[in-house]
Design goal:
Length: about 260
């Protein structure tokens, strides 16, 4: 049996997600936005929390750690570069390290930009990516601590993952991301299709994720900054992709 996931909402717009290894019973929470909804998901699935895999230090990803740790004695893994800002850390990881959730193996990829130490977890054999506030569905995280060039490099690392990779991100921002994307990529048929799909999902109270890397390559302007059509729409024809990316991110901030 392969990896299982459970997706649910936390706080106002944070996604919570559990990753479960049926072979061993090991279960990881990807980040801990809030303890109560994570506890509820554990109760509903009957899974027992063994791990918390933290992506970055922001409170909306770490506030639930200590309450969960007190109850489950779970192991908390966090990015080495931000471990001093995250409570309850047992193990630190950096680029190229591997994490284990039972028999499931995740690769740590450093994705600086949103924060300087932000990491994502890629479970290659299971085609799962936990991207938190780096890559969103049809968007990307705000560049708060890092530089635009760092964030663009982080986007390219996501672009290099296999198309079939399922992407779980940190927030339900898809609707506003689509509005922005349509403003810079009007003629994109795949984006229009995604807009109507997401509208249906949200109207039905369903999450708009997981998405896939292959889908994001078609609809996410922040992954498509090297496309001539995007540069042209911004009046930046012929400009390098990193500059187009920075302009997209600036415009999104003001959108
Ligand atoms: Zn964040
Ligand atoms: Fe966040």
């Amino acid at each position: 049996m392969s990896a299982q996931t459970r997706l649910f909402m936390c706080r106002s717009d944070n996604f919570g997600v559990l990753l479960h290894d049926p072979k061993t019973g090991a279960t990881a929470a990807i980040d801990a936005p809030e303890a109560a909804p994570i506890e509820l998901a554990l109760q509903q699935t009957g899974w027992k929390l063994t791990d918390i895999l933290v992506t970055h230090h922001h409170a909306d990803h770490t506030d639930g750690i200590m309450a969960l740790k007190a109850k489950w004695k779970c192991r908390v893994t966090a990015p080495a570069a931000e471990a001093d800002k995250i409570p309850g850390v047992d193990a630190t990881v950096k680029e190229g390290d591997k994490v284990k959730v039972g028999t499931l193996i995740g690769n740590v990829i450093e994705t600086p930009g949103h924060t300087l130490g932000h990491i994502v977890y890629w479970f290659h054999a299971d085609n799962l990516l936990f991207a938190a506030d780096n890559l969103f569905s049809v968007g990307c995280g705000r560049v708060i601590e890092g530089t635009m060039d760092q964030m663009w490099s982080s986007m390219q690392k996501m672009n290099d993952l296999p198309d079939e990779t399922k992407v779980f991100c940190g927030h339900e921002y898809t609707a506003s991301n689509i509005k922005f994307a349509l403003s810079v990529d009007k003629g994109n048929a795949a984006l229009l299709a995604r807009a109507s799909e997401a509208a249906k999902q949200l109207a039905g109270g369903q999450p708009t994720i997981p998405t896939t890397i292959g889908e994001e390559k078609k609809v996410n302007p922040f992954l498509r900054a090297a496309e001539a059509s995007i540069a042209a729409n911004l009046g930046m024809a012929g400009k390098p992709a990193n500059e187009v990316f920075a302009e997209l991110r600036e415009r999104k901030n003001k959108f």
